[in-house]
Amino acid sequence: MTTLAAIGITLATFGFMEFWAWFMHKFVQHGPLWFLHRSHHVRHPHPVERNDLFFLIYGAISAVLFITGDNGGRWWFWVGVGIACYGTVYFFVHDVLIHGRLRFWKKSQNTYLRALNMAHKTHHKTTGRDSSAEFGLLWVSPKYLQLARRKKIKTGN
Q1: By percentage, how much of the chain surpasses pLDDT 90?
Q2: Per-residue confidence (pLDDT) for residue 150, from 0 to 100
Q3: Dist. CA 47–CA 143, nearest whole Å
Q4: Quick one: average pLDDT of 83-98?
Q5: Can you give the pLDDT at residue 6?
Q6: Angstrom distance (rounded) from CA 40 to CA 23
Q7: Cα–Cα distance for residue pair 154/109, rounded to 1 Å
Q8: DSSP letters spanning the chain
Q9: pTM recorded for the entire structure
């Protein structure tokens, strides 16, 4: 496996994971697996929620790809790297930045991160499985970017 191929597979997997996460969130987590995802849409005092099982599922898939991937010699090892990289970004953006599960991040003044937060708040306006919007993680609808820019201009922050 060449370095360029390994990087390409990793980046392609990372990009695909954004689509996959959107698809799974919209059609599976807000569908047949709502009984697991529901815990993410209601306030609770627990540091862990049923929804965290999805993290374990993707972590296990990534681990299996690492273990069977011949230490980088097989293409699927790099798919596992892409999934792990996406999972890491997901954790920091979604759990740390947006939901504040680890309280070391202050509110950002970055337009993109503010837009991302606005989109996610729109998603959480409903506590039911139906009528939600904005299912992605990293891709932000242009309307939220415009709102974040306007808010930044208006407040000076």
Answers
A1: 50
A2: 87
A3: 32
A4: 90
A5: 98
A6: 17
A7: 13
A8: --HHHHHHHHHHHHHHHHHHHHHIIIIIITTTTHHHHGGGSS--S-S--GGGHHHHHHHHHHHHHHHHTGGGTSHHHHHHHHHHHHHHHHIIIIIIIIT-SSTTPPPP--HHHHHHHHHHHHHTT--SSSS-----SS---HHHHHHHHHHHHHH--
A9: 0.86
